[in-house]
């Protein structure tokens, strides 16, 4: 029995030692875990503090033009924005033309200045605080660890750039260009022959590259530059193409055509008034004249009388009845000079004073005879009456027709329809029959 107790005692001691050893291991592990937990918690708090310390400032990759906004507060960014926009608002424009200076501020030019962000959002002056808050709060919606990684450089913050943009005022710029035009541009005045036969003095003109000035200002006012604008321009003299000696050569009748009328009638009176108004019309090369406008211009104090004219297939009494004979006579004289009018319209019914299809009607605001001088030298359209004869002459340089002669020709297709041609001869030989028009007339009712 003693041996058994002794064995149990030994076993008990061994068990106690074993249990004590196991308790020591567990104690060590517990302590270590608690320490690590406290360290992790402290690290979290440390990181939260770092992130919290940056809550009022912007993260990286935030710029205003070339200015880095990283680490700035809302107030600091507002200051930068206002300073930057002020630099643009304070710009001055100076344009000098022939020594005359024109100075403008951005306000006077109506320049519009605003902020444009890289995401396309626009902010107007006065929105600086709103824009600054957008910049500072960017990436602040991420979790703490992501923000910490941004701060420590382990992650990249969102990129956000702001630039000052400028937009010019179209109306104010155009107003300035027109002012330059008024002050510095002068149209050249060629010598001309008045209706009374006097040759006027030519005058030099001045030109200015207004488009160049306008384009230069537009480019500047839309550019991202803080520099002032200073540009100098000079006008250029323009000499007249036609001088007095040139017009002295306009002295040869190159064509003539006449028609008859009753001079003592109201219709005859109207023909004489119309002829007097168109007489002496001077055209430089490329210039045009509207018979409708000239003949109906009553600034000479003369007035038309009531006389027969066509309306809806009937002859009615209207003021100016008969003036179509003026345009018709002119039309035939022009064709004889080789000049085909830009616009010509027939009467509604036939006339008796020219062949069928060779008439030219005018009606105020409705029908017109428009003539352009297609020669490279000036012409004068002369019109006058002698007794019962109305005559038109085309006067120009001697030899302007060269070897050519022109003859209008009517080809009746019926009593109310005709084709018209202009036969062109060179040295007396027919070279071409140029088709002019086909006209169909109404019967008188």
- Note the main sheet: 5 strands, mixed
Low-confidence stretches: 1-21
Rg over CA atoms: 48 Å
Spatially, the strands of the biggest sheet line up as 2-1-7-5-6
Total strands: 21
- Percent strand equals 25-35%
Distance between the termini: 166 Å
Oligomer: single chain
What is the number of helices? 10
Average pLDDT reading:
92
- The portion of residues assigned to helices is 25-40%
Structural class label: alpha+beta
| Backbone shape | elongated
Summary, kept brief:
The protein has helices at about 1-55, 75-90, 130-135, 145-150, 170-185, 210-220, 245, 265-280, 290-295, 325-335, and strands spanning about 60-65, 65-70, 90-95, 100-105, 110-115, 120-125, 160-165, 205, 230-235, 235-240, 250-260, 280-285, 290, 305-310, 315-320, 370, 380-385, 390-395, 405-415, 415-425, 430-440.
């Amino acid at each position: 029995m003693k041996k058994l107790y002794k064995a149990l005692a030994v076993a008990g001691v061994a068990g106690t030692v074993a249990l004590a050893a196991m308790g020591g291991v567990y104690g060590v592990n517990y302590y270590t875990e608690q320490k690590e937990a406290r360290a992790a918690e402290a690290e979290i708090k440390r990181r939260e503090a770092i992130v919290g310390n940056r809550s009022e400032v912007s993260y990286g990759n935030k710029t205003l033009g070339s200015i880095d906004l990283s680490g700035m507060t809302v107030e600091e960014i507002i200051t930068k924005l206002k300073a930057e926009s002020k630099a643009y608002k304070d710009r001055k424009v100076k344009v000098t033309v022939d020594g005359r200076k024109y100075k403008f501020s951005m306000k006077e030019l109506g320049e519009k200045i605003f902020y444009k962000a890289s995401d396309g959002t626009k902010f107007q002056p006065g929105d600086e605080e709103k824009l600054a808050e957008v910049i500072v709060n960017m990436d602040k919606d991420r979790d703490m660890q992501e923000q910490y990684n941004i701060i420590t450089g382990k992650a990249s913050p969102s990129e956000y750039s702001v630039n000052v943009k400028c937009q010019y005022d179209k109306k104010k710029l155009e107003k300035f260009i027109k002012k330059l035009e008024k002050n510095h541009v002068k149209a050249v005045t060629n010598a001309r022959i008045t209706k009374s036969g006097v040759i006027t003095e030519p005058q030099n003109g001045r030109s200015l590259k207004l488009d160049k000035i306008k384009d230069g200002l537009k480019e500047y006012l839309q550019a991202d530059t803080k520099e002032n604008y200073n540009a100098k321009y000079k006008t250029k003299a323009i000499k007249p193409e036609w001088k007095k000696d040139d017009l002295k050569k306009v002295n040869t009748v190159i064509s003539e055509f006449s028609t008859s009328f009753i001079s003592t009638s109201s219709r005859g009176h109207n023909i004489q008034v119309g002829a007097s108004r168109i007489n002496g019309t001077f055209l430089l090369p490329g210039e045009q004249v509207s018979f409708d406008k000239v003949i109906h211009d009553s600034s000479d104090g003369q007035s038309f009388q009531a006389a027969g004219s066509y309306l809806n297939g009937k002859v009615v009494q209207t003021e100016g009845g008969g003036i179509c004979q003026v345009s018709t006579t002119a039309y035939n004289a022009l064709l004889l000079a080789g000049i085909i009018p830009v616009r010509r319209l027939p009467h509604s019914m036939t006339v008796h004073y020219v062949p069928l299809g060779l008439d030219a009607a005018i009606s105020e605001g409705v029908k017109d005879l428009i003539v352009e001088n297609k020669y490279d030298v000036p012409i004068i359209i002369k019109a006058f009456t002698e007794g019962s004869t109305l005559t038109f002459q085309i006067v120009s340089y001697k030899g302007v027709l060269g070897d050519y002669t022109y003859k209008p020709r009517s080809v009746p297709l019926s009593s109310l329809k005709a084709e018209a041609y202009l036969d062109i001869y060179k040295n007396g030989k027919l070279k071409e029959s140029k088709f002019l028009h086909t006209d169909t007339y109404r019967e008188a009712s």
